[in-house]
Design brief:
CATH architecture of one domain: Orthogonal Bundle
CATH superfamily of one domain: Cytochrome P450
Structural class: alpha+beta
Strand content: 5-15%
Distance between the termini: 52 Å
Shape: globular
Radius of gyration: 21 Å
Number of helices: 16
Order of helices and strands: HEHEHHEHHHHHHHHEEHHHHEEEE
CATH topology of one domain: Cytochrome p450
Number of strands: 9
CATH class of one domain: Mainly Alpha
């Protein structure tokens, strides 16, 4: 599934800067019956096609009785375009600079001060707190003064969710035979999310609406279930994936002092180039799915028939030498400029469902790392743990303990 050899023209043949490649080779899997779309060009064609529909996550188990109250992640066509347009204001360059930059600055001032005061910290939890603070602003929910606890609640709910590629037998066994027992942890955690974080925000926003997701949902008359679904979608995308991306980028820099220094010496554009190249090599989510609505006999990756389930392997697409050039496994920040293509390649997806919050995540990552990497004496205390998330088909970075020169 993944390409494993460098191109013959690569001057550093055998070099592989990826940290998550071996873990992915051991654990990556696709939905039963899915056809893997080969190559970057084939993947992009499928993701941009109007002849396919979203088929990832638990989309097959979603009821579409009222599309207006379903997260736009699961919608397609006009319904998706309209809903996506309604949230576009949260992700504009102006919103990023005026709304989220101040939050990032305040959070990083707090985190770096605590880090230097104690001389140690857990980087992945620091990243989690930052991502949670920004996501809370976008959503408008109540973090009860503990953004880290809220972020961990989002993660726990996602972890308790059924596998997205369950077989018919597994669904029968888990949903019918042991329904309540199997789903009880998620039900309990979801109730906690609504009662402690969403419901209090609804009370406040009814009398004082703001430009956030909760205010929008109140205005549109969302049901309780729809509100939970929307908040979970934003929470998973905005908190969990950003945390992993920041952790992975930090790991690369702390293991390679010359890369860290290059990042600190670069301007904003140069810093983004480094982060996007790391994301090309280490996409946080590894697999996307689409189902064909019509025959696509001339598809670049080979003929596709109506009804076919297609798996887009983002890792494989991001190392396609025909698109990324020579040395596809090497971390080369100048690659995108040389190849004249968006630096993160397929990491944030493509087409109408491309991640709407990608720029927010990049700004969070850039500002977090620019602040933290300037702390005198910053270093890894030990190599972090890297776990596999079967729902996202991607890595998780945990226990990234860092140290610095303590301020006495």
């Amino acid at each position: 599934m993944n390409q494993t050899t460098a191109t013959p023209t690569c001057p550093v043949a055998g070099r592989d800067d990826r940290k998550s490649a071996e873990l992915a080779r051991e654990h990556v899997s696709t939905f039963e019956g899915a056809k893997i779309v080969p190559g970057f060009a084939g993947a992009r064609e499928v993701l941009r096609s109007t002849n396919v529909r979203q088929a990832g996550s638990n989309s097959s188990e979603i009821t579409f009785d009222n599309p207006a109250h379903i997260s736009f992640f699961f919608l397609d066509g006009d319904a998706h375009r309209k809903r996506r347009a309604s949230v576009a204001a949260y992700f504009t360059p102006k919103a990023i600079v005026t709304r989220y930059h101040p939050i990032i600055d305040r959070t990083m001032a707090k985190l770096t001060a605590e880090f230097q005061a104690t001389g140690s910290g857990v980087l992945d939890e620091m990243a989690l707190e930052l991502a949670s603070n920004v996501t809370v602003e976008i959503l408008g929910i109540d973090d009860r003064g503990n953004p880290l606890a809220l972020a961990k609640l989002f993660h726990a709910i996602r972890r308790s969710s059924p596998r997205p590629n369950r077989s018919a037998f597994q669904r029968f066994f888990q949903d019918r035979l042991f329904g309540w027992h199997f789903h009880a942890p998620k039900i309990r955690l979801t109730a906690q999310l609504y009662d402690n974080h969403i419901a209090p925000a609804i009370v406040v926003r009814r009398s004082a609406p703001k430009d956030d997701v909760v205010s929008y949902m109140i205005k549109e008359g969302y049901s309780k279930a729809a509100m939970i679904m929307e908040c979970m979608t934003y929470g998973s995308a905005g908190v969990s994936t950003t945390r992993e991306f920041i952790g992975m980028a930090a790991w690369h820099m702390l293991d390679r002092p010359e890369l860290k220094q290059r990042f600190l010496d670069a301007d904003e554009e140069g810093q983004f180039a480094i982060l996007q190249e790391i994301l090309r090599l280490e996409p946080v989510s590894g697999m996307l799915y689409r189902r064909a609505q019509t025959d696509m006999p001339d598809a670049k990756g080979g003929p596709i028939k109506a009804g076919d389930l297609m798996a887009i392997d983002l890792r494989s697409a991001n190392i396609d030498p025909e698109t990324v050039g020579e040395c596809p496994f090497a971390l080369d920040p100048e690659r995108s400029a040389r190849m004249k293509i968006v630096g993160n390649y397929m990491t944030f997806g493509d087409g109408p469902h491309r991640c709407p919050g990608s720029q927010v995540a990049l700004h969070e990552g850039r500002m977090f790392l620019d602040s933290l990497m300037r702390v005198p004496g910053i270093r890894l205390a030990k190599q972090p743990q890297m776990l596999w998330n079967r729902n996202t088909q991607g890595y998780e970075i945990r226990e990234m303990v860092i140290e610095c020169d303590k301020i006495s």
